[in-house]
Amino acid sequence: MAGVARNSEALGGQALGFKTSFGAIYRFRRELYAHWKSLLGAALCSLAYSAATLAEPWPLKWIFDNVLDDKRFSTPFPWIDSIVGSDRTRILVAAAATILVLALVRSVLYFYQRILTTKTAQEVVAKVQRRLFAHLQRLSLSFHNRNRTGDLLTRVTGDVAALREVMVSTLLYFATEGFILGGLVVMMFLLSWRLALVTALVLPAILFFSGLYSGRIRAATRKQRVREGEMAGRLHEAIAGIHLVQMFAREDEEDARLRSINKKSLREGLKAARLEATLNRAVELSVGVATAATLWLGAIQVISGRLTTGELVVFVAYMQALYRPLRRISRVTKRAAKASANLERVTALLDERTDVRDGSRVAPAFAGEIRFEGVDFAYKRGVPVLHGIDLVVDAGSTVALVGATGGGKSTLVNLVPRLYDPVAGSVRIDGIDVRELTLKSLRDQISIVPQDGMLFAGTFHENIAYGKTACTREEIEEAARAALIHDVIRAYPEGYESVIGERGVTLSGGQRQRLAIARALLKNAPIVLLDEPTTALDAESESLVLVALERLLEKRTAILIAHRFSTIRRADMIVVVDQGRIVERGTHPELIARNGRYRQLSDLQAADSPWTPRVLAGRTT
Q1: Do residues 381 and 307 share a domain?
Q2: Is 74 exposed, middle or buried (0-12, 13-18, 19+ CB in 10 A)?
Q3: Which of 141, 351, 354, 445 has the most beta carbons within 10 angstroms of its beta carbon?
Q4: What is the pTM of this model?
Q5: 493 within domain boundaries
Q6: What is the per-residue pLDDT across 141-152, written as a single tens digit (0 to 9) for each?
């Protein structure tokens, strides 16, 4: 019973592999339909190729029965008999010419069939990659926080490539071999139904072994892809943080981590390879037994006069032609099993739904008033980050958020452009709940200056214009001058067309921040969000950034997160956030006079040394 259960499970795995493959083809039918002409051409080539394959063994019959055995030449077509006649030489020449013509026709048909199918598969894969990338960009930050970047890259590149394998292998196989198999079965029963029945006995064995191993191959391949995703994630982290790796001399430890993941991936890959080799061995053994039995019974029929030598040769050729696609069943089963494991990861990603749903209302031009009304938020259920936030940011004013790291300041700011949505309460701009607005129209009116001045590997021109592509060179330079970065850019050999490194690694921290400010100035949005724009800057860089910030914040609504109090003294209101709650609010002089939490933070930062003992929130630090 256990063996029956295992076989049933394996056959189910095989069926699931093919189901996943054809399900993927159906899932991406929209991309496929755009190339129906190419697919139709490939199908016609397959049909003609199959017909040429069925005709290929017949010249051998002519030679064996009419040249070697010296019997009267005959074909199913009398007009061919009248042309060729009974002369051995002419028969031999005709047979050889027919073989060459059929080979030429088959090669041409196969070439165009392969080109059409592969071209279509590559174009469909490219479209699916674009679709997947577009979907990935629109998933909320909570999804990206849960998933490693390297694993997502593996899905978009390596796993999507499995669709090409499914289309080329599965579609090409079933289009070509389906026609051939049907024709071969008919021709073999017409030649000798007895031998055809013997040949058919191997089919259950091949299907049994294919079903037995395909589920195991699929499971091993799925685990291997998971390990490869882990390895890609680890590689991405190590390369992105290469400065830390080298600074702390952790190269050997990173090597060891990657080696451990690599070993696990190799183990699963070897397991799949052993299963594939075992399946091939079982299939080849089954085909060998059936071939031996067919030749033995066929020879008896030739001796008894029920078959000619040529007919037996044609039958054996058909049998070999039949077993070739049957052998391919095992290979296609393996490919389907592997591809299904990859495509499951792709479809799972496409099935992901964003936590932030797009609104239906286009945002009007904002005056800039922002209201947080009873806002609660949690990244994980049961672990609240914000509690009952009530805050009004008047239009054109600057509100600074201060407090200990992890208090919820960045989370609060991220609710404005709807990078996340609150679990309770609402965020309103000019009285409109931001959840009612389309994401594009909302975010088009918000500029963000992140803590690290995020830049892309491109030119200065491209990075400044990232938030506003429809702009002139004069506008870009004006924004750069206002952000005090124009002279730095002009010092480069190619000026604004000079390429900066990935994430702006060739620039200093202050230069990156001023470029980010130039980008925000060029966008000219009525609302500006700044996340610790002067963190880790030296005094000279900070002074330049502060001047640029003064110009950016002029006549705009701004929420500024800052740990360095030098950047917030001019704020219209300072809000102290502690453990997800607003504990104080007011101007700098007002908060200093209250001698509360803000005063403690200010005194701590003003100390000559960070190790100077201070009483902070009732604790000595």
Answers
A1: no
A2: middle
A3: 445
A4: 0.61
A5: no
A6: 778 777 777 778
